[in-house]
Design a protein that fits this description.
Elements (H helix, E strand, L loop, with lengths): L15 H7 L39 H7 L4 E7 L1 H14 L3 E10 L3 H15 L1 E3 L1 H9 L1
Parallel strand pairs: 1-2, 2-3
Helix pairs in contact: 3-4
C-alpha cells in the first residue's frame, strides 16, 4: 500500500506507476489495499509486509519470511500476469526458489498480454501449472 499522496512514487512517474499515482490507487487503510474477505489471513498466518511496487520481493520482507521458515517452493497467482506476477516470478527464480506459476489463477488486462506471458516467460522462470495440479500435489 501507499501513503496518502503516493510520495513513495517519484514526481514524474511513467508506465503503470503513473496511473497508480494519478488515480490514488492502493492507499493504506483503504479498500484498494485491503485483503478481500474470502482470503483474510488466520491469526496464525504470517503476513508479508511493505509491498509498494510491482515485485512481491522488492520493498517487502517476503524473502526473509520464506528463508526463516525454510520455504523452498513459491506458488504464484494474481493480477497483473505480465507485470506484478511476472516480476515476482523472476525475482523468486533468481533468489533460488522453485517457482510454480498458476496459469488459471492469473489475469492480465488483455488476452494477448496474458498469452504472451504464458508463451514466452512463464517457462523461463517457473513451472507453469494449473491450480488443480498444485492442490493434488499438496494432497499426496
Amino acid at each position: 500500500s501507499f501513503d496518502v499522496g503516493h510520495h513513495e512514487i517519484g514526481k514524474n512517474p511513467y508506465g503503470i506507476l503513473a496511473g497508480i499515482k494519478q488515480d490514488s490507487l492502493f492507499k493504506a487503510g483503504e479498500w484498494g489495499s485491503a485483503i478481500c474477505d474470502t482470503m483474510k489471513p488466520a491469526d496464525s498466518d504470517i503476513i508479508c509486509k511493505g509491498k509498494n511496487g510491482l515485485c512481491g520481493f522488492k520493498s517487502t520482507n517476503l524473502d526473509f519470511l520464506l528463508r526463516q521458515n525454510a520455504i523452498k517452493n513459491v506458488v504464484l497467482a494474481g493480477f497483473l500476469t505480465n507485470c506484478c506476477v511476472e516480476s515476482t516470478m523472476r525475482t523468486a527464480y533468481e533468489n533460488g526458489y522453485h517457482v510454480y506459476t498458476l496459469k488459471d489463477c492469473c489475469a492480465a488486462t488483455s488476452m494477448s498480454g496474458q498469452e504472451a506471458a504464458f508463451e514466452h516467460n512463464f517457462g523461463m522462470f517457473s513451472e507453469p501449472k494449473v491450480s488443480t495440479e498444485i492442490l493434488d500435489a499438496l494432497k499426496a
